[in-house]
Amino acid sequence: MHLREILFAILGVHITGIHSDSVLDEIWHEWMRLNGKTYPGRVSEIKHKQTWERNYLRVLEHNTEKDSLFRMELNFLADETFERTPMASAKLTKDTLRFQPESDLIVSFNDILLPDSWDWRTKKAVTHVENQGQLGDSQAFAAKECVESFNFIKTTDLLLASAAEMHDCCTATGFATETVFDCVHNIGGLCEDYYYPSTYGQCRNNSCTPLAKVSGGQRLPTGDEEAMKSAVYITPVLSLVDASQVSFQLYQEGIYSDPQCSNSTVNHALQVVGYGSLNGMDYWICRNSWGLYWGMNGYITIARNRRNMCGIASFSSYPV
Q1: Residue ranges covered by each domain of the chain
Q2: Which CATH superfamily is domain 90-319 in?
Q3: Which residues contact 301 (CB under 8 A, 6 or more apart)?
Q4: Residue 1 pLDDT level (bands cut at 50, 70, 90)
Q5: Environment class of residue 196 by beta-carbon count within 10 Å: exposed (0-12), middle (13-18) or buried (19+)?
Q6: pTM for this structure?
Q7: CB 140 within 8 A of CB 174
């Protein structure tokens, strides 16, 4: 049985009524055990438990809302706040609204007949879900995943590229002011993960042979989800989103939307690998970098054509 199934079997027993301290303590310690959590001292544990209790109540409250299109869960992040951000936030300003191509190679979407749904996973064009872990750079993972997929579409060779190289050479300073795919072109491409040094902090692109190459990158118009749909049909897209809401942190399944989510300030990166619709609700298929135990085996579907939910189309680009 999946860890989340065991935990929610426990929660199901206590889903109604007032939860006593002893019951919460029981669930808390079982959650710690299932997620392998330990803390350096009693003070640290109490602090994390207080956050966990707040999230416990949020999950129960949200999952009893009949009109919600997604569910939340007490996953391995339930004892953490989302005040920590792996990268500095980017905001839409008058300058960033002037989106110009960062590459001379511009893909025209005119006359493309798009299917109602598309998923690059079914084309074997995406690698396995990874966990950004201590690297803490979601942009490095999402960008290198786009390079992997683009390389496969061109060559049918699916390589696991180095997120460490992407981080060291292109994204270590935070959100790239120029497209990261231009950076990949400038360093000659990305090496396979196995051959790039596992220590971070210095660009070592000359230490291995780059195999996944691009000619540059193309940004999409701000907030244009139709243009983004056309781009995703050509190749998976890198999108920067607002992932600061607890509902995102504790997402389990379903089509995600949150009215508190910003479409102009973003702090996290995803690889958009497809799109579709369910019961009249359009969605994007996005791969995260928090491992298989988050969301739907590492994926999230985000509401599409719903006022640019969480900024999904505010800062998006793809390799060319």
Answers
A1: 3-68, 90-319
A2: Cysteine proteinases (3.90.70.10)
A3: 254, 255, 256, 276, 283, 284, 285, 286
A4: very low
A5: buried
A6: 0.89
A7: no
